[in-house]
Amino acid sequence: MSKPDHLPDRTAVPADPARGRNLLARKWAYLLSGVTVVSLSREGLERELGDLLDAFCASLLGKPADTPSVERIGERLVALGYVGEPGLRCTLEVLGKGLPSLPELQPPDRFAERIVLGLGALSCGFLLAHERSVLDQQEIMHLSLLKAVRDAQWNLKESEARFDEVVTSSASGIAVVRLDGRIVRANTALAEMLGHPSGELTGTGLYDLVHPDSVEVFREAMQTLLEGGGRERIRQSLRLLRKDGDVARISLTASLLRDADDRPGHFVVVVEDGTELMLLQGELSRQALHDVLTGLPNRQYFGTHLEAALRRADPAYGVTLFQVDLDAFGMVCNSLGRRVGEQLLVHVAQRLKVVMARERAMIARFHSDEFGILVENTATTPDIDTIVRAINDELAEPFFVEGHGLALSASAGVVHRPAKGIDPAELLRAADQTLRRAKDRRRGQWKMFDPVADAADRRAQALAVGMAGAWENGEIAVRYRPVVRLADGGMAGVEARLQWDRPGGPPLAHERCAELAEATGLSLPLGDWALRAASRQGEWWHQRLDFGLPVVAGLTEHQATDEALGTRVTGLLADTGLPPDQLMIGVPVGALPMSGVVENLTALSDVGVRVLLDEFGMGPDDLRAVEDLRVGVVRVARRLAAWQAWSDSSFLSALVPLVRQVGATLVVDGIDTEVQADWWRDAGADLATGDYFGTAVTAGAVVELLA
Amino acid sequence: MARTYDFMLGGGHNFAVDRAVGAQIEQAMPGLREAARVNRAFLGRAVRFMVDRGIRQFLDVGSGIPTVANVHEVAQACDPECRVVYVDRDPVAVAHSELMLAGNDHAAIVQADMRDPEKILESPQVRGLLDLDEPVGLLMLLMLHWIPDESDPLDLVGRYRAVMADGSFLAITHVTGDHQGENLTEATDVIKESRSPDQVTLRTRAQVTELFTGFEIVEPGLVGCGEWRPSGPADISDASDMNMLVYAGIGSKKSSEHR
Q1: Inter-chain touch A141–B69, beta carbons under 8 Å
Q2: Contact B99 A144 (CB under 8 A)
Q3: Which B residues, 125 through 184, put their C-beta within 8 Å of a C-beta on chain A?
């Protein structure tokens, strides 16, 4: 009823029916969610209750009233979740108060009866559905219990079956023994050990089988097991009595089985043939096969395993061998101590196991910081890059030992899917060699086995190690070639060079000889010998032919850093009688920063020997060295001559005057053609060596040139 | 305890003995029903939150019995392709779950101890349903307080974290005594006396926050589960101490710098 002189009543019922319903539904959802647990979200619940309310109103407005559909509303309410009594109560309150106010259900007295009956029907539908739901839930609980018990029984059967399997087929003797000592069951292995036919031991007393001398001690030990107090099992060396009267020396382990109520039930006794000695032997052979520090198999065991794995390798996927080496491990030991290094190795071993856990892989420690991994590949084995990356990722995680956080990278040599018949030793060698190549001055690299490079390496290495023998045989000789003045082609000196005349192969020139000798350290004695020979020769020429030009000999890096260089040279000068200024020693400029080289250089100069800076690059450091060390002669590296011949090299000619500026005589090596000789002459070089002026020849042949 | 919890939510998945324990606890702590309800509501919000952020697979560790508004119901209502693996140790709970999940090929239960993540992750159910290279929603709800300090819950979470892809989420709810009085002690005493082999370890806010190590906790941080982004009275009750009985938080696993 409206009052005069009043503003329209803002609390009047909204005229829009949809809006009214909407508000009621939302109120219902709001209140219902506060007392129930449903799986819908808030929006979801509002929508659902909105639907229910629509259905309810539809039935209220329809003729005749549709009771079953209202009952279904009650059912749907129950289906929302755990609605229950609080939910029903809330629903009845909200709908009871809200429905009569809806605009479409006016006037109230016309709909009052319908609303009441409708709410009643809803409650009945709710009640029935709720009952069913509770009964269903209880039913499921019972079913679950049943199922759980059945599953447990099945598991029990399974585990009993497994136990049976283990016991029957075990090579060790196994018996289940009652607490009073009666054997309930014993496997064939035990029966055999004691000379009984299978099955005969059942019912025998265990203590009757033990030699009288040891039975009391044994009984006491079993008693301590029974009483509990910490010990899970006992172990004894015993003598058992065989059926034929002999004695069997065995090692027996007994433990206690408890029943479902945790009370002692039975003993389980495992009998191994032999005594402690055999156990120790077992232990020894285990140790012989395993690395003591990390517990990983050692190289020997790995090798055996490798053989077997190669034999059974899957033809499609093959095997992959990784040889992994920790970078800078030596540095760790050196700075932080051996113990830290050892702990690091143990840690690395564990990490490697983690990485390879999903694969069929054996990880072994070869020695020091090298590990081998053999993977028997399957369809799911990741590719090599992934594996190596995984290894490095694992190792990159810092490992803390004694307060230091360490993380190392690893290098690896990988041989992937080697040929089926490959000899295991060869496979290991290939992996090792590949690892060396991977490590060549870099860290954290991995390399695949490359048969071509490998073959080349092996040839070179074979040569290098054979060099000492070849020298012994006289295959290595000293040859000589002229050092020529570019201006007029006259001779300015003679250079001594090594040459290796190999039977069954082309001769190796000085550069190759020097490289091979450097690899094995042969360069020191060989170089000394060559220097001596050259000096003796030079002195001979000096005496007989009045030859006054210097003999030039280039040193390798090893020779240049040799602490005894000065002594050697003075020694051989004294022995041969060559005047010092007739000897010119070439020091590679790359060796200058190394320790001791500058001292050697100075010592040589002090004695009067002339010094040539070899492998000169014409860069600022090199030029500085000339100035600092007051060296008179430099020889430009061969590669610069080659460079000049093949590309635009105008800057080279610009560099030449710089060398003159620091006051050095410029020699060029590697002059093989007239064109090159002309160029360098024009550029301002003084002297040159190279094939153009004659290859290295015997001392006798040089004489002609000297004439 | 799971069946008592169900009783307090208003369900019928329980036996007389569970209802008796429930009644006793309620006597000690009236209003505990509210805490149960609010806690269950958090599960729904947590799952919806994760689905909104792209998670389509879930691992619910310590799931208990299927009561109402289970993870797979909520998740599969949002996206039927969602996969859920439940984990529980109790054989009856597992049997119950197996019966409930019988027709659903996107959900499974593993019977395993939650303290053995390696066994769980190796199980055929996990291997079959979950792809751990993809982000996963890991739910550890009302579970970590059953793990005493000696069993190192932080390490346990870490072992799960290690196998989760970036973009994964972790939800934890954990009972706390921070806002309760004597009544909580009475309630936990009831549990102690029930001679259940598992006992509850209450933890403080700082301790629960620590369990999120390696994860970035999303807004609003670690709060009472009733206060975690509530959308209505379903999610939060009038009893503030009941809202705060359980801490709830969700953390996201970001990229590896957090290792």
Answers
A1: no
A2: yes
A3: none
Interchain CB distance below 8 Å, B91 and A148: yes
DSSP 8-state assignment for residue A556: P
- Contact in structure between B167 and B137 (CB atoms under 8 Å): no
Chain B residues with beta carbon closer than 8 angstroms to that of A355: none
Domain that holds residue B137: 35-177+204-258
What is the separation of C-alpha A386 from the centre of its chain, rounded to a whole number of angstroms? Answer: 10
For CATH 3.30.450.20, the residue range(s) in chain A are 170-282
pTM over 0.90: no
Picking from B6, B7, B13 by the largest number of A CB atoms within 10 A of its own CB, the best residue to mutate is B13
Residue A222 and residue A255: Cα distance in Å, rounded?
A: 9
Q: Per DSSP, which regions of A50-115 are E strands? A: 81-82
Closest-CA distance of chain B to residue A152, Å:
8
| B39 has a chain A CB within 8 A of its CB | no
Question: Residue B177: CA atoms inside 13 Å, Cβ hemisphere, count?
Answer: 13
Give the C-alpha separation, B86 to B59, whole Å: 6
CA dist A337 and A350 (Å) reads 21
The predicted structure's pLDDT at residue A673: 86
B73 CB within 8 Å of a chain A CB: yes
Are B233 and A36 an interchain contact pair (Cβ–Cβ within 8 Å)? no
Beta strands in A417-468, from DSSP E residues, in sequence order: 446-448
Q: Judge whether B8 lies within some domain.
A: no
Q: Determine whether the interchain pair A141/B15 forms a contact, defined as Cβ–Cβ distance below 8 Å.
A: yes
Quick check: A319 and A375 in contact, CB under 8 A?
A: yes
- For residue B168, the model assigns a pLDDT of 93
Structural domains in chain B (count): 1
Q: Give A529: exposed, middle or buried? Use CB within 10 Å, 0-12, 13-18, 19+.
A: middle
What is the CATH number that goes with domain A170-282? 3.30.450.20
Number of Cβ atoms within 10 Å of the Cβ of A175: 26
The answer to whether B44 contacts chain A (CB < 8 Å) is yes
Closest chain A residue to B74, measured at CA: A39
CATH of A290-449, one of 3.40.50.300, 3.40.190.10, 3.30.70.270, 3.40.50.12160: 3.30.70.270
Write out pLDDT tens, residues A569-618.
Answer: 999 899 988 899 899 999 998 888 888 888 888 888 888 999 998 888 76
CATH fold label, A463-706: TIM Barrel (3.20.20)
- Residue B164 DSSP symbol: P
CB-based contact, A137 to chain B, within 8 Å: yes
Residue type at A393?
D
The gap between the terminal CA atoms of chain B, to the nearest Å, is 35
In a domain, B54, yes or no: yes
Is the pLDDT reported for residue A393 higher than 60? yes
What is the CATH number that goes with domain A17-137? 1.10.490
A133–B70: do the CB atoms touch at under 8 Å?
no
Min CA distance, A229 vs chain B (Å)? 22
Say whether B12 and A38 touch across the interface (CB within 8 A): no
CA distance A532 to B4: 101
Count Cβ atoms below 10 Å from residue A246 Cβ, excluding itself: 11
Taking the C-alpha atoms of residue B113 and residue B109, their distance in angstroms, rounded to an integer, is: 12
CB contact under 8 A, A39 and B73: yes
Residue in this structure with the two tokens 């160029």, named with its chain if needed: A679
Q: Report the pLDDT value the prediction gives residue A707, as an integer from 0 to 100.
A: 59
* Residues β-bridged to residue A14: none
Does any CB of chain A come closer than 8 Å to the CB of residue B92?
yes
**Residue B11 located in a structural domain:** no
